[in-house]
Design goal:
73 residues, alpha+beta, three-stranded antiparallel β-sheet, two-stranded antiparallel ribbon, 2 helices
Length: 73
């Protein structure tokens, strides 16, 4: 069963379309890290292609609390 779309999703898609590059914020201990990524979406779920042994994957494995930001003026 497909997950319901949140009310803000149409607005979010406009921002995502205007700014396809997003910023992924992770942390490693007390050290934050922000990297540009280009996610693709299936419904409201973002997917980010990267190497299995990348810093992003290791960081998320240690602390799955992350932020993904598409920013557009």
């Amino acid at each position: 069963m497909a997950e319901p779309m949140p009310e803000f999703w149409e607005d979010a898609l406009e921002v995502i379309g205007a700014s396809p590059i997003a910023y992924l914020a992770t942390s490693w201990g007390d050290q934050p890290s922000v990297r540009p990524v280009t996610p693709s979406y299936q419904g409201i779920t973002p997917y980010i292609a990267t190497e299995v042994d990348s810093f992003k994957v290791r960081s998320i494995g240690r602390n799955p609390l992350v932020e993904l930001l598409h920013w557009h003026t």
